[in-house]
Amino acid sequence: RAGTRALYLAATLGGQRRVFRLQFAALAPRGGLLEAGRLAAGGPVLVSDSGDNVTAGAYGDLTLVLQEALALPQIGPVVVCNIIAPETVRACLAAGEGARVSVELGAEHLSAPRTALRVEGVVEACGERLAPVASHHVQGPTGPWARVRFGHATATFHARRLQLTTPGQHEAM
């Protein structure tokens, strides 16, 4: 009985395989950000760096999307979450909330490409551990983190890999 049911499901899903496809564009960072800026008139837009996505096993250390966002002030406010950069976090914790910091985006890239851009920003928030928000807990130890505003772009940096998977986690960022 179970085998018959499994064959039925396989045939049914196999017949619908053309429906199961990506429903969005895959673009280079600049093109993706410009498209997101165009779409943002209707509300927030999520852009994912599929090449550096920690939920897919990547390290999460690249600042390429943030660097592109900084070069595109016309796209409006941007938030880039979850960049793994322990030295940047340490500098922000030492400076404290409200302080101006100078950081070199890309200096901590473990993976290629190694790009570097020195920028100044303001530490909006930081801590030794990301606090839970509302009814959502961040699973597991989060470690030190910082949120920094660079003009029209805000980024969160973390001392260790963290998978952000719930709305509450993104709200905390």
Layout of SSEs?
Layout: H1 2-15, H2 29-39, H3 64-70, E1 78-84, H4 86-95, E2 100-105, E3 117-127, E4 145-150, E5 153-158, H5 167-172
Task: Give a verbal description of the structure.
A five-stranded mixed β-sheet has the order 1-5-4-3-2. The chain has five helices and five strands; from the N terminus they run αααβαββββα. The radius of gyration is 19 Å and the shape is elongated. The chain has 173 residues and is α+β, with helices and mostly antiparallel strands.
| Secondary structural class | alpha+beta
Major sheet details: 5 strands, mixed
Spell the H/E element sequence: HHHEHEEEEH
Between the first and last Cα atoms, what is the distance in angstroms? 49 Å
Average residue-wise pLDDT: 83
Bulk shape: elongated
List low-pLDDT spans.
133-139
Neighbour order of strands in the largest sheet: 1-5-4-3-2
Gyration radius, to the nearest Å?
19 Å
Content of β-strand? 15-25%
Q: How many runs of DSSP E, i.e. beta strands?
A: 5
Give a quick summary of the entry.
The protein has 173 residues and is an alpha+beta fold. Helices cover 28% and strands 21% of the residues.
List keywords for this structure.
173 residues, single chain, 5 strands, alpha+beta, elongated, five-stranded mixed β-sheet
